[in-house]
Amino acid sequence: MSRLLEVLGMSAGYGLAPVLHDIGLYVDSGEVVAVIGANGVGKTTLLRTIAGIIQPSAGRIAFDGRPIGSTPAHDIVGQGLALVPEGGRLFPFMTVLENLELGAFNPSSREKTRTTLDEVMMLFPILAERKTQLAGSLSGGERQMCAIARALMSRPRLLMLDEPSAGLSPVMVERVFDMLRSVVASRNVTVLLVEQHVEDAPEIAQRAYVIERGRIVKTGSGAELMNDPDVQRAYMGL
Length: 238
Ligand SMILES: Nc1ncnc2c1ncn2[C@@H]1O[C@H](COP(=O)(O)OP(=O)(O)O)[C@@H](O)[C@H]1O
Ligand SMILES: [Mg+2]
Prior knowledge:
This protein is of the alpha/beta class. Helices cover 36% and strands 27% of the residues. The protein is built from 10 helices and 10 strands. The chain has helices at residues 43-50, 73-79, 96-103, 107-110, 113-123, 125-129, 140-152, 170-187, 222-226, 229-235; strands at 3-14, 17-28, 32-36, 58-63, 66-67, 81-84, 158-162, 190-195, 207-212, 215-221. It has a 6-stranded mixed β-sheet, sandwiched between helices. A 4-stranded antiparallel β-sheet has the order 2-1-4-5, covered by helices on one side. Helix 7 runs parallel beside helix 8. 43% of the residues are buried. The structure holds adenosine-5'-diphosphate and magnesium ion (MG). Adenosine-5'-diphosphate binds next to strand 2 and helix 1.
């Protein structure tokens, strides 16, 4: 198994306000890894920093062995790393198809747009049915699937998801995670996702990290963390 993403001693924030401190984590090819943490601890900032939207103030981020800590976001997409932002962030007044096509905008994926579109429609038949519909008219679950599909249009090797279960009913969460599982199995994609509730992640994630106030405080297998009394108290959302 090769190390696809490695973050070492990484700090980042906004202007003079530090948010993340000395972050260390890794994701191997083929893994699904979760980062669990309460609201406001820095999960979105973490994903945005890895994606190159925010520059780290210290430390190292390597993707497939290459440093990307000072690479601009669009070049990072070109290297095979895609982010599904919180809530999906689709363009509501564009159709499903137009949203998907935008996902392939990068030079590295643009010429394969048609092929990738066919592959993605096979994975998400519901999007094929809804392709001429405005993205803003999709249900919450469909919107999340469309956002995942749009990220897949860039043909990523690492897919990062910001709270994919947020705002969805338990049944929809299950469906979105089933989709993710088939994406991992069929498209050779590795996944790093962040979630607020620990019970949303372990069934899909082999490993997880717990983040508190911008620091990684625990790590283990999904099952280990599920059974950890501290974690249960803090993150079971019960
Ligand atoms: N654009 C921004 N400018 C300044 N501070 C921000 C910005 N976005 C988030 N923050 C702050 O960074 C901290 C972490 O936020 P965030 O990464 O969104 O946490 P999470 O995703 O875990 O809820 C919070 O204190 C938040 O207020
Ligand atoms: Mg967030």
